[in-house]
Amino acid sequence: MPDWDDVFAEKGKFFTKPHPDMERIANLFIEEGIKRILDLGCGTGRHLLFLLKKGFEIYGLDGSPNGLEIAKNWLNKENLSSELTCQKIEQKLPYKDGFFDAVVSIQVIHHNLMKDILFTVNEIERILRKEGFIFLTFPLHKIFYLKKENMKKVETRTYIPLKGLEKGLPHHFFTIPELKRVFRAFELTEIYIDKTNHRAILGQKN
Questions:
Q1: What is the pTM of this model?
Q2: Torsion sign, CA atoms 169, 146, 42, 175
């Protein structure tokens, strides 16, 4: 199975611009008194940089050593710093219960089988304080870039691409009812398709 670590090693700072809604989300967080945020699957650091410049206390976690090295160097050039952790998201997150005010995760959580996705969501719930926020995005099945014959189905709505940049990496495609079930510990105030043609959810822990 390929790894995003290999992608980052080959392509470097692969993503540079923040999610198009991150400005709005950051303003909401400021209004709600959010201070400490986890970027889950932070990659090379585009949202770490953006949110640090907004004045938040940001932590980053990613499974790619190469991605985190790029993020660290990028932050250093901007005279910024963040606590970065190299770890897979399907492992117990190294933070205390209720440690964060918000978790953001852009196009990350769907890259797993459902049992691991459920584990990650439970960990997000654990490390968020009561009424803490989530802002997460996921791909839409209907606009997925691979044709059906180039995908192997491994479980319900979960496919592994047989070619392309993300060859061998699981992709789970959520339905809206499934999102509501999986994130039932949260009040989902927004479920919508963003400008990148991904489904986005904004919610608060009950």
A1: 0.91
A2: negative
